[in-house]
Amino acid sequence: MDVLTLLASPRSDGNTDAILGWVESALQSAGHVIERVDLTKLQIAGCKSCYACNESDDAPGCVVMDDAQDVFTKMISADAILFATPLYMWSYAGQLKPLLDRTFCMVRDYLTPTHRSFVEGKRTALLVACGGGIEGNADAVQMVFPRLAGYLKLDDRGVWIFPNCTEPKRLPNTHGNKARELAEALVA
Questions:
Q1: Which helix (H) or strand (E) holds 142?
Q2: How far apart are CA 20 and CA 31, in angstroms?
Q3: Which burial class, exposed, middle or buried, applies to 146 when counting CB atoms under 10 A from its CB (0-12, 13-18, 19+)?
Q4: Tens place of pLDDT per residue across the chain (188 aa)
């Protein structure tokens, strides 16, 4: 299986990067092909809300020419997509949000019987590393991601929260086990 991982952490070698690395290692050990995209190294503008994308019925059709075009192509080609972000202000890091907004171009006929998506049926999950606990901290992101997955008609394999991440060298041992569980859930 071809798995696309999208890292949205502004800290290289940070908690999110470390946990995503564990997931990727587990996937590679099981024979899956991983392609990681570090969103912090790309230029991705926000959605212009111009609706030009809806003029194309057979391709995403986004008119904003930046690195998101390449990411969309990779998303369409992958069998599974794993989003990885640190928790910032109860939600996604700013490096991920513009890409998610721009996925508007991946869907046609939302809220109609002919609702379809260019990534329909692909497996997906969200990995979230957060410095604090889950309750009262990561509640919003757990609600928002399933809605995004439904909008994109993705096969949602869950929001995986990794709490109490203070620094990569001090990540709890349980996070390694949970990372392997996430890898299994994504490709099962």
A1: helix 139-151
A2: 17
A3: middle
A4: 999 999 999 988 899 999 999 999 999 999 999 999 999 999 999 999 999 999 989 999 999 999 999 999 999 999 999 999 999 998 999 999 999 999 999 999 999 999 999 999 999 999 999 999 999 999 999 999 999 999 999 999 999 999 999 888 889 889 999 999 999 999 99
Collect all residues with Cβ–Cβ distance below 8 Å to 151 and sequence separation of at least 6: 103, 107, 110, 117
Task: State the Cα–Cα distance between residues 90 and 62, nearest whole angstrom.
Answer: 29
Give me 48's structure tokens. Answer: 């212009």
Task: Kindly list the structural domains of the chain, giving each domain's residue range(s) and its CATH number in brackets, ordered by start.
Answer: 2-187 (3.40.50.360)
Is the whole-model pTM more than 0.85?
yes
Residue type, position 22, single letter: W
List alpha helices for 30-115, DSSP H: 68-77, 97-102
**Beta carbons of 3 and 77 less than 8 angstroms apart:** no
**b/e per residue 83-121 (b: at least 16 CB within 10 A):** bbbbbbeebbbebbbbbbbbbbbbbbeeeeeeeebbbee
